[in-house]
Design brief:
Largest sheet: 6 strands, mixed
Order of helices and strands: HEHHHEHEHEEEHEHEHEEHHHHEHHH
Number of strands: 11
Distance between the termini: 35 Å
Structural class: alpha/beta
Shape: globular
């Protein structure tokens, strides 16, 4: 899953700073005069992104007259490749777009594919029935990552503060072991680590998930602003192809075929991959367009981005708050829906 391939936000930030400096030393290879070359897009393992494999295999990008080169990455390396100018677009979360853009180069989100709807969890040991039961308890998670942000929102929703719990920094792939050993009372993890924690600690339960805060974690397609300016028409076509993919994936009669294609791209059995789909809320094109509204609530990219920005500053991922609005542009999604 996308989550398995995340690295600590601070590490990503430092890598992006370094690669941004390298990219500033000189331009990379360029297409011959008159040849725009393919759109270069980096993607990684998250259902909202592996779904692009449907369009690739069915030839829908070629049908649309688009030359697109999709490069498969682990998640953090995809952001590093974008920062180094090796690709024109990358798929990442709202918060990570801010992390990547803080040192430069910034990106522009032209498309929101989905939001996490249950794949991120706070799992507590036997005897803790709800978030309020976490008071005074140890919660193991990776400080500065999305589970930390989700824990803060869970506490806020229950009239609590971060000071009411004891956060223990635990690598996500070790959270299940930490809960089972009793070294912590609860953990924050994403799938499949969350399920491993549930299975490994008898009586444990999820007391809060991303389903409880829809819109906290949006998944985006983000483009280099210069490339977007030069090839806007191509990117509108790209969004139109996504709309076709989205319709196919969301149609129940296509579920088995879609899962098989997506699981094949991820390299896991279809029956295993299918379990994670309910925790990914695919947005219809009309729903996605509304997420670009200029409201400051979690049902918009602007509102969700401001929450992530405040969290990143508070956790010293970067020093100063960033303007979120320049990172998002809904006009291409609007144009793609025009008759």
């Amino acid at each position: 899953m996308r989550h398995l391939l995340r690295r600590r936000a601070v590490s990503v930030f430092l890598s992006v700073v370094f690669l941004s400096l390298l990219s500033s030393l000189g331009p990379g290879p360029r297409a011959a005069p008159g040849d725009k070359g393919p759109l270069r897009v980096g993607f990684s393992d998250w259902p909202g992104w592996t779904a692009f494999e449907v369009g690739i295999q069915k030839g829908w990008f070629k049908e649309a007259g688009l030359d697109v080169k999709f490069d498969w990455f682990e998640y953090a390396p995809s952001m590093e490749a974008f920062a180094a100018g090796k690709i024109d677009a990358v798929m990442m979360t709202t918060g990570d777009a801010l992390v990547t853009g803080a040192p430069g180069p910034r990106s522009v989100a032209i498309l929101v594919t989905d939001y996490s709807a249950g794949n991120d969890m706070i799992v507590a040991k036997r005897g803790i029935e709800d978030v309020k039961g976490l008071k005074g308890k140890k919660v193991g998670l990776e400080v500065g990552l999305v589970e930390h942000l989700m824990l803060d929102k869970a506490l806020e929703k229950n009239g609590m503060k971060e000071a009411d719990v004891k956060i223990v920094n635990v690598p996500t792939n070790q959270t299940g072991q930490a809960l089972a050993s009793g070294s912590v009372d609860a953990i924050g993890a994403w799938q499949p680590n969350a399920n491993q924690a549930l299975k490994g600690s008898a009586g444990s339960k999820a007391v809060f998930t991303s389903k409880d805060v829809p819109g906290l974690i949006y998944d985006l397609v983000c483009v280099n602003p210069k490339n977007l300016s030069e090839r806007r028409a191509d990117w509108v076509k790209f969004v139109k192809v996504w709309n076709r993919i989205d319709k196919f994936v969301m149609d129940p009669k296509n579920k088995d075929e879609a899962v098989k294609i997506m699981a094949g791209r991820a390299g896991v059995p279809p029956e295993e991959y299918a379990k994670f789909l309910p925790g990914t809320h695919f947005l219809t094109p009309e729903e996605a367009l509304k997420r670009f509204d200029k409201k400051e609530t979690l049902d918009t990219l602007l509102g969700s981005g401001k929450v992530a920005d405040a969290f990143n500053v508070a956790n010293k991922v970067y020093a100063k708050a960033q303007p979120v609005a320049p990172y998002i542009d809904g006009s291409l999604s609007k144009a793609a829906l025009a008759k």
